[in-house]
Specification:
The structure is a homodimer.
Chain A (H helix, E strand, L loop, with lengths): L9 H8 L3 H8 L7 H14 L5 H8 L4 E7 L4 H4 L1 H16 L3 E7 L2 H12 L5 E5 L7 H8 L3 E4 L14 H12 L9 E5 L1 H14 L5 E4 L6 H13 L8 E2 L5 H14 L5 E4 L2 H13 L9 E6 L2 H4 L7 E4 L2 H20 L12 E4 L2 E3 L5
Parallel strand pairs in A: 1-2, 1-3, 3-4, 4-5, 5-11, 6-7, 6-8, 8-9, 9-10
Antiparallel strand pairs in A: 10-12
Helix pairs in contact in A: 1-2, 1-3, 2-3, 6-15, 7-8, 10-11, 12-13
Chain B binds a DNA duplex (30 and 30 nucleotides) through helix 2 and helix 4.
Chain lengths: ~375, ~375
DNA sequence: CACCCACCCGAGAGCGCCCTCACCTCGGCA
DNA sequence: TGCCGAGGTGAGGGCGCTCTCGGGTGGGTG
């Protein structure tokens, strides 16, 4: 009925508690340096009036927003069909919530959107950003570094200038750390990633350990660092694998089916497959069954992700490389928040102590398919 | 290097353009009532300084935030495994972006989270909310109505007090409209939904039109209104169907497989299946093939959603009921924004003109499975 | 007993913006 | 020519909050 009863202000709380605005403010913000009886009075006034601080007024003076942007570049619809983001988002959301930060979601879909996001971030509406930029040629990371907003990337971003290759991961990490410095308002550009390369090595070694000598690999889209890293891991173990044992795919079940058919046509004698994710592994499994090949007796199969409604429901249940996706999200948020806190304090010297990249380990989950 | 060069203020822009703050402000906000040469000067000053308005300062006086909360209640992980939300979110994001509004994402996961969301919304941090609350017994809709925030629901919310049944949809809509009034700070509680019931009817009629007399139905989780409505639609057409032809499931492929097996065991003679969504239809197809039944010759199958990487990739491609999910998201946002604009203007009288619920039509997409 | 220090608390100055209101400038009309 | 009104512009107040700074109070010490 009544149109939006005017929300009580700090002034009102102070009046009701019989103290000054300053004291009321102190109590609302933790109550340090205020004697107990007053704290109590103010607290009661807050409850009675249903006082909620006006965030806009607060931000105006503190220059903090307690809000973090999550930027998801979405070149194709596929990005979202994947539960991957959803899980990371969940982890992020939980962590931000736990620290009373809001999550501002920015979905981008094209060149002009990038400009918009850049403007938004530079506009200082949020304290920091969590960015998912999967594709190698994405201009977003560059834009964001220039915007000078504290940022944590999800997955190793690639801001090399085109070249690439077989350098070992250590070199890459160092590289990232180097470049991290010098932009972003004094502090490294950070990222969180799974140890894709090592996970892939573990998977392939497992297959080899099973006595499989003709191991095929269904890759993900190779313009994504995660897929590229997994391929690198595969190659680390199968140094001189027949190139016909590698088929590029796209992380989807349908893509996995297609790739599996292709591989079987080229090398009908293959006896193991390492798929770059569970979804494509599921597709591969279907094709194998369709061709009358038994898993794991004839062909052993390993996936990647341990995406749960998928990996444990395939037939046979999938052996796979587990990465804790939700935890990655949490970690991204945690990293960013701690960075923001550090930046708030004067910081006695450049904090190069923070690692530029955090790589989470993976573990092999053994089920029936290998 | 330099720690966050102080952002230019409107004052600075005004000074550079040689006008007053007021004039600069007018130009920034559209430039009405300012003569051309001055507009030009101010515009240039804005560019040169890279001025971006301080949203916090603006909100402080306008009491608008140009931000909308999107609340997704997530009782189980599954909610997100479904690309459904992702698509709606995309639609919402596009529409909000087009109107320069921000999207604040709130994921909830339990009782205490509800309280938090309620507090947040009541706290006036956002101008409105878009809420997805799927489950019948969810306290969220009630909480939100009490918070007095303009809200649009995704999917028909159920705030009946437990009872329910076979009233026709018209009655339901009226009901919703009634209750919509009286809370939410003057204005109806609104929602956007697909015409699930009619879509189901169309699908089942199509099967009947194909001469199928023993039509089974794999439902979704019946505590969600969409699933319940589709079941109602099925029953509208198959008024006295054998109850053994209906099996409750959960919108997942695995659930679809399970339900299909169950149905075939109970009624091996069935010759058509209407699945409540494409994912469960895909599962059903696999079971049918496994049992050596041909689709559509032996059993015709229809899904629901027309979820694209799924429906057109099954074998055979799925005939299904299409709903434009992304458009639903767009519409939700559009509805909310227009409501917010209306509320801004004094509004000469209660605007009961706005429909409480918007029901989008569905269309049958014929592919090979029926 | 005087002094100092540590601790609390209140007054007041803004943060950057929008908006009201008064003023000023013209052009049109009597 | 004088007056009036419409349309532009500028000065200033205030949105709700935090934070600095000065005053006041109490207890410990020389």
């Amino acid at each position: 009925m009544t149109d939006t009863a005017p929300r009580p202000t700090l002034e009102a709380v102070a009046a009701r508690a019989g103290v000054s605005r300053a004291t009321a403010s102190r109590v609302v913000n933790g109550g340090d340096g205020v004697r107990e009886p007053l704290v109590e009075r103010v607290r009661r006034a807050v409850d009675e009036l249903g006082y909620v601080p006006n965030q806009a007024a607060r931000s105006l003076v503190t220059r903090r927003h307690d809000a973090v942007a999550v930027v998801i570049a979405e070149p194709e619809t596929r990005v979202f069909a994947d539960p991957f983001f959803a899980l990371q988002l969940r982890g992020i959301s939980k962590e931000l919530t736990a620290h009373d930060n809001q999550l501002v979601l920015l979905l981008t879909e094209g060149r002009d959107d990038h400009a918009r996001v850049g403007r938004y971030l530079a506009g200082g509406h949020v304290d920091g950003a969590l960015v998912f930029s999967l594709h190698l040629d994405d201009p977003l990371p560059g834009l964001i570094r220039r915007a000078g907003v504290p940022t944590v990337f999800g997955g190793r971003p690639d801001w090399s200038d085109g070249e690439d290759g077989d350098r070992d991961p250590a070199a890459r990490d160092t590289d990232a750390a180097d470049r991290g410095e010098g932009a972003g308002g004094g502090g490294g550009v950070m990222y969180v990633d799974s140890d894709n390369r090592d996970g892939a090595r573990t998977a392939v070694r497992h297959l080899v350990g099973l006595g499989r000598t003709r191991v095929a690999h269904i890759t993900g889209p190779l313009d994504q660092t995660s897929a590229a890293d997994r391929l690198d891991g595969f190659r680390d173990v199968r140094v001189d694998a027949d190139p016909r044992l590698v088929e590029e795919s796209d992380f989807t079940p349908a893509g996995g089916e297609r790739a599996m058919r292709e591989l079987l046509d080229r090398r009908p004698d293959l006896n193991a497959v390492f798929a770059a994710n569970d979804l494509s592994a599921a597709g591969a499994l279907r094709v194998l069954r369709e061709r009358g090949l038994r898993v794991p007796q004839d062909v052993a199969v390993i996936g990647f992700d341990d995406m749960l409604p998928v990996a444990d429901q395939t037939d046979p249940p999938l052996t796979t490389v587990r990465q804790d996706i939700e935890e990655m999200g949490r970690l991204m948020a945690r990293l960013l928040l701690s960075r923001l806190d550090h930046r708030a304090t004067p910081a006695h010297g450049a904090d190069t102590g923070t690692p530029a990249g955090v790589i989470l380990p993976t573990t092999l989950i053994r089920r029936a398919s290998a």
